[in-house]
Amino acid sequence: MRFFIRTYGCQMNESDSERIAWLLTKRGYERASDETKADLIILNTCAVRDSAERKIWGKLGRLAKLKRNKPDLLIAVGGCVAQSYGEKIIERFPHVDLIFGTRSFMKLPDLIEERVSAGRPVVDLSEPAPFHFIPQLRESKLKAWVNISTGCDNFCSYCIVPYVRGRERHRPVDEILNEIEGLAREGCKEITLLGQNVNSYRWKDVSFSELLGMVNEIEGIERIRFITSHPKDVSDDLITAMAELEKVCEHLHLPAQSGSNSILRRMNRRYTRERYLDIVHKLRKEIPHAAITSDFIVGFPGEGEVDFEETISLLQEVRFDYAFCYRYSDRPGTKAASMEGKIPEHIKRRRLEKLIELTGRIALEKNRELLGETVEVLVEGVNPKVEGELMGRTRTNKIVFLRGDGGMIGTTLKVRIGEASHWFLKGELCSEG
Fold first, then answer.
1. What fold does the segment set 143-368 form as a domain?
2. Contact 4, 32 (CB under 8 A)
3. Domain boundaries in the chain?
4. For site-directed labelling of 78, which of 6, 38, 191, 235 has its Cα 20 to 30 A away?
5. What's 335's DSSP letter?
6. What does the alpha-carbon distance between residue 55 and residue 171 come to, in Å, rounded to a whole number?
């Protein structure tokens, strides 16, 4: 049987899809190059925003035609939408064969066999076995996601993650280190430690910053990244680790969500604007060239014009290297969904447009500051849109395009930046790093 996985949403979903692919290939399944060639189509879904859900509903509607033309095709829905809606998906889309949750994907091969033998749809949203290592079928040998935790205990008032991913669970230190050592032996050079709240990691007496120190000692690994960090858990020890550990990249993704203390309280973020700025100032004091990226939500219930202007002023003060901006949307079962003070859609759109324009302008200005500078770039692959051009990233996670051949892939090079846009840089090879 040939399978095709389409992944929506966050890096955790991407990592889960790699695990699903490994589980299936271990059972003898083969990967299809596209969904028209597949006997099994798996949608690994995201429910963090209403717009993400709408993509899934639209995709399932389009797959109905494919299934009519290919009746034996199996369609499986997993991830956060599956965990949130369960059997309701099959009620709405009866051509769906299998629903599996965020915490039951490790049983997927058995669930597929159950669907085939039973001849009826299967739904499994069961709780998982203890959090343990499952290998991944990675598309890149150069870079790898490494899950160190799953779930979240923060219960931000707008967020569905604790409900669909469960409470926070951490992997044992030895298991994490063994996985990374194995990746290094296979030629992996960059790892990204993953968790919904990655910097809250603790295993017995080992903190997240101490884990970074242990990973830093693994021979063969050249770069260490981590995502996503919660501001309430950013410690001075973490900032020191970023400054002193040579393999830890100088990039911190630190979702602010709002610049208004009033809105932050309603969001249950458990930090203030002043605390957020304190983190930024400490990081830039220790690592002046560090890149800081963020997430923002506009139109949260109760957000007035003064609150929105405080978000604008935070962006202007911090000058993020980039920020991802979204309109608020109700998520079923969250506290914010029942809050009063809902913001009209036309006001949300206006605020979002203003925020996107500002973040884009600042990102361009920040990238232009690198013109003429020499940066270290790990070459990840070719640019599929431009023949003879390679793509890589700086330690600060900026995309860089440069001319070169395939033999440079996997090498770390010194590149002089000659062009800058909002989203990427272009440069010329100086010398091999």
1. pyruvate-formate lyase- activating enzyme (3.80.30)
2. yes
3. 2-124, 143-368, 374-432
4. 191
5. T
6. 32
